[in-house]
Amino acid sequence: MKVLITGTAGFIGFHLARVLLDRGCHVCGIDNINEYYDINLKYSRLEEAGFRKEQIENGKEIASEKFLHYHFIKLDLEDQTYLLNLFHKKRFDCVIHLAAQAGVRYSLIHPHTYIKSNIEGFLNILEACRHFPVGHLIFASSSSVYGMNEKMPFSVEHNVDHPVSLYAASKKANELMAHSYSHLFGIPSTGLRFFTVYGPWGRPDMALFIFTRSILAGEPIDVFNHGNMERDFTYIDDIVEGISRMIDSPPKGIPDWNGNHPDPSASRAPYKLYNIGNNNPVNLMDFIKAIEEAAGLNAKIKFQPLQPGDMARTWANISDLSREFNFYPSIPVKEGVKRFVSWYRSYYKV
Hints:
- 39% of the residues lie in helices and 17% in strands.
- The chain has helices at residues 11-22, 39-48, 80-90, 106-109, 111-131, 166-185, 207-217, 236-246, 284-295, 319-325, 333-348; strands at 2-6, 26-31, 61-63, 70-74, 94-97, 136-142, 189-194, 197-198, 220-223, 230-231, 234-235, 271-276, 282-283, 300-303.
- The chain has an eight-stranded mixed β-sheet, sandwiched between helices. Strands 8-11 form a two-stranded parallel sheet. Strands 9-14 form a two-stranded parallel ribbon.
- Helix 1 (11-22) links the parallel strand 1 (2-6) and strand 2.
- It is globular, with a radius of gyration of 20 Å.
- The N and C termini lie far apart (41 Å).
């Protein structure tokens, strides 16, 4: 199977590529290596996958020195001409679109970046899938789309029309865009609402990374909403396992889908949405305690009010994913945090 993964210098893309390569897939990875966070971490991920920094140039396809069937291209998704030529040349069987401008708080300051990356970039992916059909398009959405919804656990059958950040709105827009292309052009599309993914090689803007760095440095950490937060923290290996299970099973559409009582997670078109999370929300203070235990140090805590754009609680209903793909997360938070702290100390030599 020939698979395109966008965002392979990123956290999830890095891990997913290695799992699919182990499965025998031929993987082409693309990433623009932007400066939203430390590009050295992104280059380190690529180096782990066999791509040396000095080899990487815009638009240049290079082969991995560690994996026989892995190629990488530094590419901006707004480059529609290059993207269409790539699809024409490679004829991908599956596209897994993970590249995006991430971050809720960053979207309050740099809103135009989200339209360019998350809307225009995804449109170019959809157009490429339209003109050079693929067997399955899997794209990243987010738990952030649930916004002001307070009904727990979050279900893909719930209304998600009240986002509380532009980032969330851009992910909701991606779901709508994918459905329209699925309906019009028959692109089998699966959207995945990720719930607070964490683990080794994770993003420096995420709470686990920030807390670990500060605790190990003896610096105080800001804990928002005075610690009254819950997150459905999901370990990276569980996320990647869930994605890999569904690659060979594109949605076919539901012929008797009822427009009078529409299920927003499905359609007559070959389109489906899933939550992919741990299905076990953890109190933020308990999460911090797990970091303290793994680090062998106590946190210095500064309680702060809830930040604009933040959600106080997330909890994923994953019944569809479990039923259809036998997906059951297996890594508890304490173990996952322990693995991350061990990686962090090794990587940063602290």
